[in-house]
Design brief:
This protein has about 350 residues and is an alpha/beta fold. The chain is built from 14 helices and 10 strands.
């Protein structure tokens, strides 16, 4: 299998291409790991149960982060207590996953994942795509990201043997509007009640910026069953590799999900309006997009460093200047109220989804 690294993984066909190779993608990934001397134990494996839009974004973000770490460690070969720095994260020797299992339901989803992986990564990736075999995928990992559609949760967990397979795992739910008590009622039910003490459920809500490791990820835990410290540390290690992690109380989840999960779409619409104006003024849309994005980035960095929004406006809008004329147009058309209403509508819809369950 030394040739594994040379010939690579053909993601479109799910096989190794080269002399005498006709292996499934799952075997390819495992053999590649064995060649590199990597740990393929459940502790180093992450399963995404329901690898849809958000699950895929998280997967690609984790893969991109791992690739960057490997590149950095190929430059620096320093050893820390006999371990390569890429295997160490935080205290107590916490490690990131080395292998990923993406669970989907349909052949169309399999094809989508293969296509997207091949398009984004020009090298073999340690991913096994699993269709219709959730139980073995869950058994192969110690950490499971629960990413199915909220309306499909009941159907997903009714699969014979799946709830049993989830016992003793660290379960990170990214299901919008599904609370931890609701999940506990599914997973910690008889006859698994006695074993449920070793099962940890943490709720997280990343946003689509995880794709480029810039997610704003919300994190909340049960108020009745405190997760063990190592589970929180593993979760933080995992999610911090795709952006910032912000602990919040369960009661604020709907509002914060709208604030962090929905607003990227709001921001995109605001940018669209600015680009239309730029085109009307004679600029190319592609050039204007770069300028607007860089400008928004600068404002965001200032806010992150403690600058106030009012200070930004006051600094830009000099007396008798042009910027205040544009700001007055926004104020006369109720921009702030419109954005507030949009945020409240999104938060209300999140809460309604949960109540309908």
């Amino acid at each position: 299998y030394r040739q594994v690294q040379e010939v690579g993984l053909d993601l479109e066909k799910g096989t190794l291409q080269g002399p005498s190779f006709a292996l499934s993608s799952s075997i390819c990934v495992r053999k590649m790991a064995e060649v590199n001397g990597e740990d393929v134990s459940p502790a180093r494996t992450l399963t995404i149960l329901g690898c849809g839009t958000l699950g895929s974004v998280i997967l690609y973000g984790l893969l991109a982060g791992s690739a960057q770490e490997k590149l950095q460690n190929s430059v620096s070969k320093e050893q820390v207590n006999g371990h390569n720095p890429s295997t160490l994260k935080g205290e107590q020797g916490l490690v990131k996953p080395m292998h990923y299992i993406a669970c989907v339901r349909t052949k169309r989803s399999v094809a989508r994942l293969k296509h997207e992986l091949a398009a984004q990564f020009q090298f073999p990736v340690p991913v096994r795509i699993s269709q219709g075999d959730n139980i073995s995928a869950v058994n192969a990992a110690s950490t499971v990201i629960l990413g199915c559609q909220p309306q499909d949760l009941d159907m997903c967990l009714k699969e014979d043997g799946l709830v049993q397979a989830l016992q003793g795992k660290l379960i990170i739910s990214i299901l919008a509007s599904i609370t931890i008590p609701q999940l506990e009622s599914h997973i910690n039910r008889p006859p698994f009640t006695e074993r449920s003490s070793s099962t940890t459920i943490i709720r997280a809500m990343p946003n689509t910026s995880a794709l480029h490791n810039a997610s704003t990820t919300l994190l909340t835990i049960s108020t009745e069953h405190q997760p063990p410290p190592h589970a929180l540390a593993i979760t933080n290690t995992l999610l911090s590799s795709i952006g910032g992690v912000y602990p919040i109380s369960p009661g604020h989840m709907d509002a914060c999900t709208a604030l962090c999960g929905s607003t990227p779409a709001f921001f995109a619409r605001i940018i669209d309006g600015l680009l239309d104006g730029a085109v009307a003024l004679g600029l190319k849309r592609s050039e204007a997009k770069d300028l607007v994005a860089e400008t928004m980035k600068g404002v965001a960095e200032g806010l992150m460093k403690g600058r106030d929004t009012g200070e930004v406006v006051e600094t830009v809008c000099t007396p008798g200047g042009s910027s205040i004329q544009g700001v007055l147009v926004l104020e006369r058309n109720g921009m702030k109220g419109l954005l507030a209403d949009a945020l409240c509508a999104a938060a209300g819809a999140n809460g309604a989804l949960g109540r309908r369950r």
